[in-house]
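hey so u asked for the seq, here:
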Amino acid sequence: MENKDQQNQIQIELTDEVAQGIYSNLAIISHSTSEFVIDFVRIVPGVPKAKVKSRIILTPEHAKRLLLALKDNVSKYESQNETIKLDNKGGFFPPVGGEA
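ran it, structure tokens below
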């Protein structure tokens, strides 16, 4: 007989293609009353056009879970490494926010 923890486990599959990942140096986040949309973009210096490489659509509840998970992981990273510094000098910082 399986215990309750074994019954509630989900097997997650990671294909070779997805495991390669997609590099992004910009995330644009928008929302409506029912969902959050995160577009991951790669900006190349000197190129005036950038393409969305991936789009993730989340419920508001999952967006908040993602926020908390990122906050937790950044804290763990900084406790093991160094504080991540955000420097506005010479960098590109597009407007953040908006509604879909």
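Helices lie at 4-7, 16-19, 60-80. The first strand starts at residue 26 and ends at 31.
lmk if thats what u needed
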